[in-house]
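Researcher: We are triaging several targets before committing to wet-lab work. For this one, the compound of interest is zinc ion. I'm pasting the protein sequence and the ligand SMILES. What I need is the predicted three-dimensional arrangement of the protein with the ligand bound, expressed as structure tokens, so it can go straight into our comparison scripts without reformatting.
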Amino acid sequence: MDNPLLKVFETPYQSIPFSKIKAEHFIPAFKENIKNALEAIDKVAYQTAPPTFENTVEALQNVGELLERNSAILFNLNSAETSDAIQTTTQQASPLLTQFQNDVRLNQALFERLKTIYQDQDQEKLSAEQQTLLEKEYKGFARNGALLNDDEKELLREIDTEKAKLSLTFGENVLADTHAFELHITEEKDLEGLPDQIKEMAAETAQSKNKKGWIFTLDYPSYVPFMTYAKNRDLRKEFSLAFGKRGFQNNNNNNTDIILRLIELRKKRAKLLGYESHAAFVLEERMATSEENVVAFLEDLYQKAYPAAQGEWKEMEDFATQNLGLNTLEKWDTAYVSEKLKQAQLELDEQQLKPYFPLERVKAGVFDIANKLYGLRFEKNDALEGYHPEVEVYEVYNSEGVFYALLYTDFFPRPGKRNGAWMTSYRGQKKGQRPHISMVCNFSKPTASTPSLLTFQEVTTLFHEFGHALHGMLANTTYGGLSGTNVYWDFVELPSQIMENWCYEKQALELFAKHYLTQEVIPMEYIDKIKKAAHFQQGLQTLRQLGFGFLDLSYHDTQATVIQNVKTHESAILKRVQFTKDHPENCTSTAFSHIFQGGYSAGYYSYKWAEVLDADAFELFLEKGIFDYQTAKSFEENILSKGGTEHPMTLYKRFRGKAPDPKALLKRAGLVE
Ligand SMILES: [Zn+2]
């Protein structure tokens, strides 16, 4: 079989010849790629020459290039343009790749070489980037148990297996309880306040279940609009309490024991590897570095956000008493009252804004901004293949006119594409190789009469993903393993979130926010409304996020295993961020999938952390000018091009001249002067 995946592509820029690649090419290619990679790794591991950075760490960087390329193609396609064949192939490929990673991690000869180099690193004159790479490789083994004896390794495997199983069950339990409840409405008057589109959705849900009327479920797209718009307070109460019971009922889906066991296992694993707590283990590879830093960070924001939140709460109470006849606000009232207050204060209509944001012009605008900041030029090349006719491929040139990257853009929803928006790469950057980056979104499609018009939120999404794409396209490191978005987790959203700031600036909006029919520039009054909307109830929203952050940390710090009762513990933690009454039959933790199912444990703080970084970094642009050449150049040189070659705090301070200051975020949110 002539399999294109077994060779280097002979196309311009070695771009991917998508039309020649078939699903059946992947598995044979992976098998061959893995065999070659394992052979190459053994050559490194069992060579007779004494271990050096060059013959071991650097040599490993060049192992498995085709495997990496082919995995990127398959997984990216599975997200953006899947089919039954691609899905089946992905399911077959995943265990092969996991097995490969395990084989590498268990290669003790390789680890011994890395350990020697790591311990004797003072003897080699390594650059900062090389030191970081060495540390990353070494820690990759050590944090997975390479330093343990055989009994301990066995214990670690047992812990990992049990942990994985519990996390899976946790998620299944939440899902089971979510699906077990439905709010079935048969009287139209009970729908008062709900937008037509939401009613239609609920009617369709009822029809699909062969029932009359309307059905709302505990899934977010159904639950959130109901709580936000439904006037019927009794139904909001019933729905809210049902939502809060997920994973916390007297049935087989109760998650409280799973939580207690999970935090015990996480702590045990951390101790086995020599860390004081699970948080210490996680934060070792984060910009925030330590539990103390995270606590101090959250506390500082709390002290400053609390008074603002108190004021906003009082305003909601007054508004509810005067206009809605509600004297005490319960938790099932907050979203509803907040929305009513917002409408009364802002008069912002999304539909009025959309004509100013035709997709083609927004895209041209973001390219224009990248040109003003970093000198990049984007040239569409139809001769380069995409994986779908809607995909556009751009050659990207740097300020010296040198080819710097390929950019794929893919903007519309279609079957076979998952929800949401993301940036990814088909080929990373390293010395002598420029990257191939892709951004994928799900924006409203054009119709016969109207071009694709974006909501303001879609505009910020496009800027966000483009920011990630810049991190990829401007990468300029020696080693691929440290390039582009290969950075610590609480640092990766800086390049993306900072780009969103330009969407609120008059000078930037004037470049592209023009009415698609009249060419009129967006009126200043709309821009003011957008900004005002962004400030709405920022105190309360901050407090809510901080609550999750405190709760997450409390399950993973040194005190974690002292917890006896999940509900009692949670109530004590959340008391300081809540203005509504606590309900004994409800629990947040038992459905807190971010930290008990997904990978956010001891990491929930990073949402706020990233916001502080981007607000603080953008403040320099505000001081010097949002298109200031020197500031942009410094951001590129110190942040965007550097990937993970040094500790993010070092890189950040080099750009900003100081550590990030939470005050920048509070200022932007309108919480302090
Ligand atoms: Zn992002």
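Researcher: Any quick observations?
Model: Residues 464, 468, 493, 496 surround zinc ion (CB under 6 Å).
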